[in-house]
TrEMBL record:
It comes from the Bacteria. Residues 31-241 form the BPL/LPL catalytic domain. The keyword Ligase applies. The lineage of its organism: Bacteria, Bacillati, Bacillota, Bacilli, Bacillales. Keywords: Ligase. InterPro entries: aa-tRNA-synth_II/BPL/LPL, BPL_LPL_catalytic, Octanoyltrans_LipM/LipL. Transmembrane segments: none annotated. GO terms for molecular function: ligase activity. This is Lipoate--protein ligase family protein.
Length: 271
């Protein structure tokens, strides 16, 4: 059994959340820390857009601001995700790790075993998605509309969305595990030609995605979900998770990255 660091950073701003993932990648690359599993929430709620995703003409920036949310651009690709009442996870591990396949798709499967076991801890019978045909054919800006390889689905509906990047030898995979989902607010974040098309998209979305509490008779809290997925990752990846708390100097580095990149309009809107 291998020991990884476990970072429970609770609820942070969107900029600080993205900055902490980047800082942890840097420290692991420098050999200062072992691989990391991190759990976190968002305060205020945030809309994260993919590294290559276009904002202008796709994202309703006024809609984001109207709800008091903040937009942030991720290091990872993919489509936009509304992070509200959810548990978000990050896995930071070297590409050279003996358990990590060279293929992004196969590495997804390894890491997603932690998610699979987390759902089992909640008595939710999830399955790995094996998409048929070409993905991303909808042209939608909304992440949860299509499952990717080895993401988790329940009754054919996506229950966790993940994205992965590899930078200078380090894998970052992070993902969203919705506890509750507000579809009306979600679709206020995106630009549609008219309200009729938006409403049709919202109704179709209900058939494609589900949250934890929509699958359970007794609703779960953030802490209960966090506890279940911590056990899930320990079991699924055969890990001993050692709590790790950032010191003052490390927090200062996280804030510096947030200020330079993730609160910067040029990074968030104009890439």
């Amino acid at each position: 059994m291998e020991t990884w660091y476990f970072v429970d950073s609770n609820h942070l701003s969107p900029a600080l959340n993205m900055a902490m993932d980047e800082a942890l990648m840097n420290w692991h690359r420098e050999g200062k820390i072992p691989p990391v599993l991190r759990f976190y929430g968002w305060n205020p709620a945030g809309l994260s857009v993919g590294y290559f995703q276009k904002v202008n003409g796709k994202i309703d920036i006024e809609g984001v601001k109207r709800h008091g949310y903040e937009l942030v651009r991720r290091q990872t690709g993919g489509r936009a995700v509304l992070h509200d009442n959810e548990l978000t996870y990050s896995v930071i591990v070297s590409e050279q790790h003996p358990q990590m396949p060279a293929s992004v798709k196969e590495a997804y499967l390894i890491i997603s075993k932690g998610l699979f076991e987390g759902f089992r801890e909640l008595n939710i019978k999830a399955e790995f998605a094996i998409p048929e045909g070409k993905l991303d054919t909808t042209g939608s800006a909304v992440c949860f509309e299509e499952p990717s390889w080895y993401e988790l689905i329940v009754n054919g509906k996506k229950t966790a969305g993940s994205a992965q990047t590899r930078k200078k030898g380090i894998i970052l995979q992070h993902g969203s595990i919705p506890i509750d989902m507000d579809e009306t607010k979600l679709f206020d974040m995106f630009i549609y030609k008219n309200d009729r098309i938006k409403e049709r998209a919202r109704k179709a979305f209900s058939d494609k995605a589900s949250s934890i509490n929509s699958l359970l008779s007794e609703p779960k809290t953030f802490d209960e979900v966090k506890s279940a997925f911590k056990k899930g990752f320990e079991k699924g990846l055969d890990l001993n998770l050692q709590p790790f708390t950032l010191n003052e100097e490390q927090w200062s580095e996280v804030h510096k990255i947030a200020e330079e990149r993730y609160t910067n309009d040029e990074w968030n809107y104009s890439r």
